[in-house]
Design a protein that fits this description.
The chain is 50% helix and 11% strand. With 415 residues, the protein is of the alpha+beta class. It starts with 9 loop residues before the first helix and ends in a 5-residue tail after the last helix.
């Protein structure tokens, strides 16, 4: 029987751990740089969920020395209306009466709000009732007096089509007539753009790719605040209370009991409400929620190792208690637990922020992945918006899963 070299079985595990660790570190560095870059990007004030400007392509061109592409498109929140009017045959241009009592919605479809210069734009409306004699009116917001006749409507089907020749913002009104002479009008704003948009736009013409980029600011950096409190303070409290006991242990237990007596989500939401939905304050509350579990785990670990023979041997050799605690117990015997807890805390903090923003419990002016998912759901599960957000979240989770696996395997002791 061939001899088996010591550590022969652990070597493949260490190799896989090194690969996982390298991939995890690389992903972590990239995500952190993206997060910091998003923080350095100006975010204009808005009273809506998200406002994506300037274009990510324009910013990239400027960074590469290609010059800033002027964005002349004005982004505004304009809803879609489908109301009945009282247009008659003698007054074909009369505006529908929107001040009367609400009537059933006529149009069941919504047009694409963005057109490209030199590319044919087309929209086929779907209605709940039969309409005829469709007509379309296009008004250039920048110059209402100018003629905007590039779009036409088929009188029978209502299909509107045209090829815009310049960047601009247009008010479009599509009006069809019912058999009884009443008119149903659908109004929307059409943004004519000449930029390349990686993931397209949402229903209000906002750049989804730039939105994902800005929403990255709500992940790594804010989560670091939660991890610093949950792991940094938790390790300190747990190590001292576990090694010295007495008053430190009783104080730690009392603190844990107080924090755990309040539901975590309620505590985080309360901190957000009191701080006017400040993300860093909410992440501090997330760290406080995770602190008792970390402190309890470290305390049990220290209590288990402080009774070992090597601790008495270290004292006989003249080592101070602080050296024994932090070097021999925490670093050499507790670092795998701490690394695992740190990666789990990062993931929990990111997912908590996504959950809170999806539920509307964060500042609506702050872009986040949760609000991207929320807007995507409100826009009938728009895949172009939800897929990038979900992909980024999976990337974040994979990053810390790889880091946790790599660190644990790398620090595994030989058997």
């Amino acid at each position: 029987m061939p001899d088996i070299a010591p550590g022969q079985f652990i070597a493949p595990l260490r190799a896989r751990g090194s690969l996982s660790l390298r991939l995890g570190i690389a992903l972590f560095v990239v995500l952190t740089l993206v997060n910091l870059a998003a923080y350095s990007t100006e975010q204009p004030a808005s009273d809506t969920y998200l406002r994506f400007a300037p274009s990510h392509v324009a910013a990239l061109r400027a960074l590469l020395g290609g010059g800033q592409v002027q964005d002349t498109v004005t982004r505004q929140e304009v809803g879609f209306t489908g109301v009945f009017g009282n247009a008659s045959a003698s007054e074909p241009s009369a505006e529908p009466d929107t001040t009367s009592s609400p009537l059933p919605k006529v149009y069941e479809s919504e047009p694409d709000p963005v057109a490209r210069v030199g590319v044919t734009y087309q929209y086929a409306p779907a209605t709940r009732v039969v309409l005829r004699d469709y007509r379309v009116q296009v008004t250039d917001k920048a110059d209402p007096a100018a003629s905007s006749s590039w779009m036409t409507a088929d009188a029978q089907s209502g299909v509107i089509s045209g090829t815009p020749d310049r960047v601009g913002t247009y008010d479009v009104s599509l009006t069809g007539t019912m058999d009884d002479g009443r008119a149903a009008t659908q109004r929307f704003t059409l943004w004519v753009d000449n930029r390349f948009l990686l993931f397209g736009t949402d229903n209000n013409g906002r750049d989804i790719a730039h939105g994902v980029f800005l929403a990255a600011r709500s992940t790594i950096v804010p989560a670091a605040v939660a991890v610093l409190i949950a792991v940094g303070l938790g390790v300190l409290v747990g190590a001292i209370s576990g090694y010295y006991g007495g008053l430190a242990a009783r104080s730690s237990g009392g603190l844990s009991a107080i924090v755990q007596s309040v539901p975590g989500l309620l505590l985080i939401a309360l901190a957000g409400r009191m701080s006017d939905w400040n993300l860093l304050v909410m992440m501090a509350a997330v760290g406080l929620v995770m602190l008792p579990e970390t402190a309890s785990g470290v305390r049990e670990l220290v209590e288990r190792f402080r009774r070992r023979d090597f601790v008495e041997a270290a004292r006989e050799l003249g080592m101070r208690d602080t050296q024994i605690l932090w070097n021999e117990i925490i670093w050499h015997n507790g670092r795998r637990f701490i690394a695992s807890r740190m990666c789990q805390a990062f993931t929990f903090a990111v997912l908590t922020e996504v959950t809170l923003s999806f539920l509307g419990l964060t500042d609506p002016l702050t872009p986040s992945m949760g609000r991207l998912l929320l807007v995507g759901r409100e826009n009938e599960f728009r895949a172009s918006m939800m897929v990038p957000a979900l992909a980024y979240l999976m990337l974040v989770i994979s990053c810390f899963a790889l880091l946790e696996r790599g660190l644990i395997l790398r620090w595994s002791r030989r058997r």
